[in-house]
Amino acid sequence: MLHIIQNDPEVPPGLVGEELDRLGVAWSIVHPYRGEPLPHLAATRAVIMMGGAMGANDDLKYPFLTELKAFLREVAARDIPYLGICLGGQLLAASLGAAVTSGIHVEKGTYSVMLTDEGADDRLFRGIGQEFVSFQWHNDNFAVPQGAIRLAFSPACPHQAFRVGTRVWGVQFHPEVDEQLVREWSSWTKETAARTEEFVADYRRREADYRNVCRRLLENFLGCCQ
Question: H or E element: which one contains 198?
Answer without folding.
Answer: helix 196-205
